[in-house]
Amino acid sequence: MTPAASSSQAANDSVLLRGRGITRRWGGLVAVDGVSIELQRGQVHAVIGTNGAGKSTLINILSGEIPPSGGTVELLGQDVTAWSQPRRARAGLGRSYQRTTIFPGFTVMENCRLAAQARQPKAWAWWQRADRCAFSTDAARAALQRVGLFDEMNRPAGMLSHGQKRQLEIAMCLATAPQVLLLDEPLAGMGAEETDRMIELLAQLKRPSDRSAGHAILLVEHDMDAVFRIADRITVMVNGTVIASDTPEAVRASPEVQAAYLGGH
């Protein structure tokens, strides 16, 4: 293999999730129109745009919650366009939502362990206590350690601060051992201190660790200061289409982006 071919193969291997020509129509409404996107290991790829730009529809298609009207989705080099959301999750795709999806009456540990159990369900082991499942317990502990909530594991999840609840959601994703993380507005409603902690967490997650080779992260977010602090690449959507996809520096300098969205930001 030539050096050029080897370099090309390495680049291909680093792309963990790819969408090609993704389109979604509801009747005469085109919510997403021919969008292509690649998520690479070790990078935070932010998708920004005004309300109604198609960001949530795009992330729902990538995660498998709704099917595309056209285009394809590839996860780890495999066409998963027809796969369900649970099947994609088991194959290495983690997802968080705009609204918190924790169980407030359960402890932090119980929330995280439930997520881990979803990766290896054992319906036949109904007689076994969940807290005696070594696999899910170890996965939950490791995930809580990674996000900085290990010392809070016995607290009811409903008693956590808003920022900690968002951290718990990411821990629940990590407990399923994903390689790709789709994060929908994880910074919404946070103060400056909580935002700083979340940005540091995202920076850690994209780097290799003893349990991960580094994640590919899709970040849908409205906090532009945070986006430009953490993103390695930014895709800008307007009316369901992509008007720019480049480095933060190039996006910030784009007259088209400034006119359509940033307003001279």
Summarize the structure.
The chain is α/β, with parallel strands linked by helices and 265 residues long. The chain contains ten helices and ten strands. The protein has helices spanning 3-14, 55-63, 85-90, 108-119, 134-147, 162-174, 192-205, 224-230, 248-253, 255-262, and strands spanning 15-26, 29-40, 44-48, 70-75, 78-79, 93-96, 180-184, 216-220, 233-238, 241-246.
Number of helices: 10
Mean pLDDT: 89
Global Rg: 19 Å
Output the helix-strand order: HEEEHEEHEHHHEHEHEEHH
**Gap between N and C termini, in Å?**
46 Å
As residue ranges, the low-confidence spans are 1-12
Which CATH class of the domain at 16-92 and 218-265 applies here? Answer: Alpha Beta
**How much helix, percentage-wise, in residues?**
25-40%
In the CATH hierarchy, what is the superfamily of the domain at 16-92 and 218-265? P-loop containing nucleotide triphosphate hydrolases
SSE-based structural type: alpha/beta
CATH topology annotation of the domain at 16-92 and 218-265:
Rossmann fold
State the major sheet.
6 strands, mixed
| β-strand amount | 15-25%
- Specify the overall morphology: globular
CATH architecture call of the domain at 16-92 and 218-265 = 3-Layer(aba) Sandwich
Strand order of the largest sheet: 6-7-8-3-9-10
**Secondary structure: number of strands:** 10
